[in-house]
Amino acid sequence: MAALMATLIVCLTLTISIAMVTAASSTVQFVFGDSLTDVGNNNFLQYSLAKSNYPWYGVDYINRQPTGRFTNGRTIGDIISAKLGIPSPPPYLSLSMNDDAILQGINFASGGAGILNETGVYFVQKLSFDDQITCLEKTKAAITLKIGEKAAEKLCNEAVYFIGLGSNDYVNNFMQPFLVDAQLYTHNEFLELLTLTLNGQLRRLYGLGARKVVFHGLGPLGCIPSQRVKSGTGECLEEANQYALEFNSRVKKLLVALNAKLPGAQMALADSYDIVLDLINNPERYGFKISKTSCCNVDTTVGGLCLPNSRLCSNRSEYVFWDAYHPTDAANAVIAGLLFADPDIRQAPSPVSELAPAPSPL
Ligand SMILES: *[C@@H]1O[C@H](CO)[C@@H](O)[C@H](O)[C@H]1NC(C)=O
Ligand SMILES: *[C@@H]1O[C@H](CO)[C@@H](O)[C@H](O)[C@H]1NC(C)=O
């Protein structure tokens, strides 16, 4: 009984919330992730097929220009940065290691990336999570040259590390029957492989000085437009949603265990599953009208990204999804606000004051 109580108390005290991680923390952010957080790294990868630096991506971003963000406007990360009062960190591949900007935070996210190296193989080129951590390692060496070892260690200890990965490990790996991992593993085995790999990656980040880590869990993957079309009836794929729930629960356990083992670690799960599911099931509750199909009239048989000749919906604020995978700027604002339990975040400064009328296809 005493042992059980002790375990309970340990678990309670080790469940770190994202508010705790980000409260009174340094303004330096290091962002790791996939297309949900990429702010332009893939623009620099010549052979990558996971690109969005063409219309109509960015149609609601600054100057209505595509930037490599996989949405019409801001990512959830952009909105969280605005909320914390700091600029959204620039893409790693846009920076020179001589640049003082590397002291202000960096975004390493790359469309198509996963926790596993083999995820997203058909995008040809991307920075996997391992690659992104290697980029941080190079950055830390450059920071050390600039400000010395002690100050570099302090900077890395105080920075906040946002990680959003796992969607591609499912959508562009395990859930593709023609790929090896789908044939090789049961879901339990795959989950074991994902968490074991993530454990090593988070320990590597810790070794580089990371203490304040926010891991953004998976949303209801079975309800994104690219998966709905597979059900034949347009309903959500329940099996995919179940995978996401199990993944989130396993990652939460992993973070609790790491907080217990690694001195000073404050690793939290930002779990947006219920938020996003409610947004999809009850769009009108949040000021949206349509959540089953995307604003951009994409062809899910050829990738599901928005193309220059795609037709756009007439009001982008009425749609939860921008393309077959990614939420709209308006949905990202709601999700970020709810994640931080802060309704005001929806009013976070937007780069454009109002949405322009739907442009005609190029
Ligand atoms: C994944 O790739 C990285 C290099 O990008 C390598 O260091 C690592 O060992 C690989 N992991 C596995 C499991 O193959
Ligand atoms: C677009 O939709 C949003 C959200 O439903 C609404 O507030 C806004 O008035 C609409 N804009 C136009 C031009 O209809």
UniProtKB/TrEMBL annotation:
Belongs to the 'GDSL' lipolytic enzyme family. Keywords: Hydrolase, Lipid degradation, Lipid metabolism, Secreted, Signal. CDD domains: SGNH_plant_lipase_like. Its main location: secreted. One of its GO terms (cellular component) is extracellular region. InterPro entries: GDSL, GDSL_esterase/lipase, SGNH_hydro_sf, SGNH_plant_lipase-like. One of its GO terms (biological process) is lipid catabolic process. It is found in: Secreted. Residues 1-23 form the signal peptide. This is GDSL esterase/lipase At5g37690. GO terms for molecular function: hydrolase activity, acting on ester bonds.
